[in-house]
Write a structure and sequence with these properties.
The structure is a homodimer of 155-residue chains. Chain A has 155 residues and is mainly alpha-helical. In chain A, 67% of the residues lie in helices and 8% in strands. The longest helix of chain A has 33 residues. The model of chain A has no long low-confidence stretch (mean pLDDT 92). The first copy, chain A, binds a DNA duplex (30 and 30 nucleotides) through helix 4. Chains A, B: InterPro entries: HTH-GbsR_regulator, WH-like_DNA-bd_sf, WH_DNA-bd_sf.
Chain lengths: 155, 155
Amino acid sequence: MDPDVGRRYAQEVGLVLAQMGTTPAFGTLLGWLLVCDPPRQTAVQIREAVGLSKASVSTGMRALEQSGMVRRVPAEGRGHAYEIHPDAFTRAIDPTAKMRAFIDVMQRGLDLMGDEDAPQARRLRHTRDVYAYMIERIPALLDEFRAREAREEEG
Amino acid sequence: MDPDVGRRYAQEVGLVLAQMGTTPAFGTLLGWLLVCDPPRQTAVQIREAVGLSKASVSTGMRALEQSGMVRRVPAEGRGHAYEIHPDAFTRAIDPTAKMRAFIDVMQRGLDLMGDEDAPQARRLRHTRDVYAYMIERIPALLDEFRAREAREEEG
DNA sequence: CGTAAAGTTCAAGAAGTACTGAACTTTACG
DNA sequence: CGTAAAGTTCAGTACTTCTTGAACTTTACG
């Protein structure tokens, strides 16, 4: 991929991720690691590729590391390189996070009301229960996908 | 529920929703409509309850209406009242929205690469496919929940 | 049909946040 | 072991975005 195209794509990913609450820089770095060639790159390479400051690369890469999406690997010469985890998104970006937050705030409302079975609690109960059900079922879906993926790689 | 407790709870909901990209005022209004008694309230009542300006209530309620979470109902006397839809959250807050955004940006990366089967495209492909699979299966989960809910109301 | 309440719109101020330059610490080559 | 590259930290700046007061339009009661 053309380096210029890659840089712009990384920024696109940055925008998408930013709309989900990360900083643009965080998403840009992730976007670059998603498409870069070779897949392992040093901070200096990344910096030159995406055009962020040394400070932003340092802070952003640490956040990516802590979130478990990216890992450090030894590099020849000085410093170290970074590599995105193959299924970084499924590992770190929990699609049920939003639902959990809803469940929590609904439950808190029910606690404040005191009587969970009161008619006025219905609005809160319904929302809590829908999301609780979804979250309960989603892990099985992920397992199914992994099984299907494994089957395809054999066959 | 104590009016003061209700107001503070509405603000809590506002904070939770704000972390998902809405304005705090939007979430606060929604939070109030979740727990208020009576469930139908005029803009003036809402304004007094949550302590937002007339302007914020007006703008916020319109957004809630357009998102389909809240509907206007005729009020006695002047003006009109608002009422939250029983399953406002499941209707309007699509838990797959985030996944769709990821699928789109992964696909765009694959398009830029040209060759979808290239080894360097693997990182993009994997993420796209996981989320596509999840989205495909989630509607069935919602149906299951509704069926279960209907069964419980009979029994 | 006049008037006051209800509702809308928008410019301006306030508040929060992300990026970076610069100073500092750590690392490792020669 | 000196030095230069690599990496970290943080205060300041630039930017975006939410809220609101105020002026305006619409509604409906008397």
